[in-house]
Amino acid sequence: MPYRAPTSDFAFLLDHVVGFDLVRATDRYAEATAETTSAILSEAGRLCEDVLAPLQRVGDQNPARLENGIVRTPPGFSDAFKAIGGGGWLGIAADPAYGGMGLPQTLTTVVNDMMSSACLSLQLAPLMTQGQIEALEHHADAKLRALYLPKLVSGQWIGTMNLTEPQAGSDVGALRTKAEPREDGSYAISGQKIYISWGDNDFTENVCHLVLARLPDAAEGTRGISLFMVPKFLPDAQGNAGQRNRLRVVSLEHKLGLHGSPTAVMEYDHAIGWLVGKPHKGMAAMFTMMNNARVGVGVQGIGVAEAAYQHALAYAQNRHQGRTPVADIPAISGHADVRRMLAQMKSEVFAARAIALANSVAIDMATATGADDWAARAALLTPITKAHGTDIGVEAAGIGLQIHGGMGFIEETGAAQFLRDVRVTTIYEGTNGIQAMDLVGRKMMDGGEAAFRLLQEIEDAAFKARAQLPELAEPVWQAAESLREATEWLVAQDMNDRNAGAQPYLRAFGRVLGAHFHLKAAQADRGVRARLAKVFITRILPEHSALLTQMRAGAQALYALSDDDLVA
């Protein structure tokens, strides 16, 4: 089945569920009208269906390769990326002063969701570039912004993020890449970076690397890290790509999935770079890009879940095997267990997507109003969006393969590719374990105030919904109250006990948020949305209780097991 962009689902969520009307009501985003939103949904949906989706299997079967020092990308990727850049999709939220549309981040999230469904390996390229655009807007000086942003926004140049080194995985503070000052104010960058998504290509005029490195007087750890712009080709006097810089792709990784996306090992040998932001403040600048990317990666998981669902649904509605209990549904979609899996996939996608869009609304409201409450809401939801969205992506892809049965294990059906491609999303941009620890750590440094405000909104909404939908509203209210009590317990614990229960706590939060958004959808539409909400609230929401029990178990039993016990 060809991919179909779920534009009606996005329109419904924006209009009735996630509060996008608040964004439209601000002066900053007044141009994000219903007409503009509709046009973006329509045009981006058409791009994803007609241009990107046909490349999904092409990228998997024709992987990116390194050939005589040149990265060769899959057939069709060049034209597709040019269509993305030419359509303005890289700069939806970028500053109009540099060629962007200046529209809300929420609309970027919508477009990235559809691109991820259509062809995840290619969508990684726009995601990295969008993150670099935001980092430069916030932290680069005027000269760097004027030089780089117009070409990044247009897609002439592409952006990457260089954090990880062979000896320093998630421990960024252990990096060793050096930056030595040059007489002209630039720096000589030397070191090696690994896992660089879209580290090079054969279709853009330049590749712009944001590289974390240490100045000679840098302190140990993350406090001593600075951020540098290091382009593949040095800009000439006219600002065009000129002389080749001293950097190269050492190799491309051989990966489980995302074969169309070149993941590079990069080497910098006194490459010329320019400081972005202040010396020794590189992590603050990079976190701007990383936070953008974390929401984006959560959306990647959701997009793949959508694609896997559509693929599985088409198979289930056409595959005949055994007699079903429903005479007018002879295909396997008429079997109760297959029906359960399809209903789970669809309801999970809706819930995770609503969380990501609500996160984006909070980001936009924080940007438009400067209000601390909105900024705290955005920060709280970011690790949930990333971890929960990607977990659902992996689970939905697995369910989709299961629906295909034995044929799902056969590569020709395409079902396995979704699982292979999405699996890395739970790992990169901060593993989901790190996201969970961030949620119970940094995001609870306010004593849980941001979480309590959100839970109060959920309880208030459920209380009001009792009159119309008591069978759905009551379980949501009870679940939110249980999560409130669990949060009160959590903030009173030491960090190791918090970390031991971080993953189940984050997942429980995702379940409660998903139920909240399903309830809002059911209030707006008593038809299919209400029926889908009933599936989620009665079958999936109850997981929160067991998850919160796990969360309260603490760390003691884990450490009671010695290393020898783990070996035995």
Overall shape? globular
The poorly predicted ranges are none
- Please give the share of residues in helix: 55-70%
The CATH class assignment of the domain at 440-568 is Mainly Alpha
Give the N-to-C terminal Cα separation. Answer: 49 Å
Query: What share of residues are in beta strands?
Result: 5-15%
Q: Can you name the CATH architecture of the domain at 440-568? A: Up-down Bundle
Radius of gyration: 24 Å
Number of helices: 21
Biggest sheet, open or closed, and with what strands and sense?
Answer: 7 strands, mixed
Write structural notes for this entry:
The structure is a single chain. This protein is of the alpha+beta class and 568 residues long. Helices cover 56% and strands 12% of the residues. It has a domain at 440-568: Four Helix Bundle (Hemerythrin (Met), subunit A) (Up-down Bundle). The strands form three sheets. Strands 3, 4, 5, 6, 7, 10 and 11 form a seven-stranded mixed β-sheet that branches. A two-stranded antiparallel ribbon has the order 1-2. The longest helix has 35 residues, at 282-316. The chain is globular, with a radius of gyration of 24 Å. The model has no long low-confidence stretch (mean pLDDT 96).
